[in-house]
Design brief:
Keywords: Cytoplasm, Gluconeogenesis, Glycolysis, Isomerase. By secondary structure, the protein is of the alpha/beta class. Helix content is 45%, strand content 15%. It has one domain: TIM Barrel, CATH 3.20.20.70. Bound molecules: phosphoenolpyruvate.
């Protein structure tokens, strides 16, 4: 059975106090709701990670993730944070290859392979992001484009390694724009990506990989998106900054 996952990506938002308040609210709401079959992940900026972890405590099905990690294990890389450091205080997920990092920090498919290796070597679950820009969608070559992102970054991993990776399909034109992909568009791409993974790693493995949708998901559209057979959850940006909205999305399965 594939895991259902809703991961919040705070991006570069919130002061220390705001982050503590948001986390406390989410923890309390999730405890009240007692949601059993959905994994919730909070991915705050680096400086929030440890205090957020303390607030999460032993809350059932609530986990800590980072928005990024270094492609190196340790050493003279000023300003970087290693996957080992993240794991050492209890982070269990890490977002890799978000389109903002690909675009603004020029992260290549090859670099993302190295980051994914570091995550896996330190027991973190990579949430590997992929997705096409608007012009590629409009040209109708979006499936080939996104498949190639997976091929170039992930297809040299062993089946065992691949089985530990979560995919997040995030069409760039839908991120932070309020323009969500329709649930049919999401399903079409998720099924294509699962087929692509199956072609390399086999159907059984592909059937067990969680593929999340990201891009202007909110409490109003999450139910429809999550009703699709190949949509196993969401990577949530803007709506993860409001506790009620975020928890409503978690409850949308
Ligand atoms: C994201 O940044 O991963 C994202 C999906 O953002 P938003 O939900 O705001 O579109």
């Amino acid at each position: 059975m594939r895991k259902k996952i809703v991961a919040g990506n705070w991006k570069m938002n919130l002061t220390f106090e705001e982050g503590q308040k948001l986390t406390s609210e989410i923890v309390n709401m999730l405890k009240d709701e007692n949601i059993k079959d959905v994994i919730t992940v909070l991915n705050p900026p680096f400086v929030h990670l440890y205090p957020v972890k303390k607030l999460i405590g032993d809350t059932a099905n609530l986990f800590l993730g980072s928005q990024n990690c270094s492609d190196k294990a340790s050493g003279a890389f000023t300003g970087e944070t290693s996957a080992g450091m993240l794991a050492s205080f209890g982070a269990t997920y890490v977002i890799i290859g978000h389109s903002e990092r690909r675009e603004y920090f020029k992260e290549s498919n090859q670099l993302l392979t190295e980051k994914t290796k570091q995550a896996l070597a330190n027991g973190l679950t990579p949430i590997f992001c992929c997705g096409e820009p608007l012009e590629i969608r409009e040209a109708g070559t979006h499936e080939a484009y996104v498949k190639q992102q997976l091929t170039e970054s992930l297809f040299d991993f062993s089946p065992e390694e691949m089985s530990k990776i979560v995919i997040a399909y995030e069409p760039i034109w839908a991120i932070g724009t309020g323009r969500t992909a329709s649930s049919d568009q999401a399903q079409e791409m998720h099924a294509a990506l699962r087929g692509h993974l199956a072609s390399k790693f086999g159907k059984e493995l592909a059937d067990n990989i969680s593929i999340l949708y990201g891009g202007s998901a909110n409490p109003g559209n999450a139910k429809d998106l999550f009703s699709k057979p190949d949509v196993d959850g969401g990577l949530i940006g803007g709506a993860s900054l409001k506790s009620r909205d975020f928890v409503e999305i978690v409850k949308s399965f």
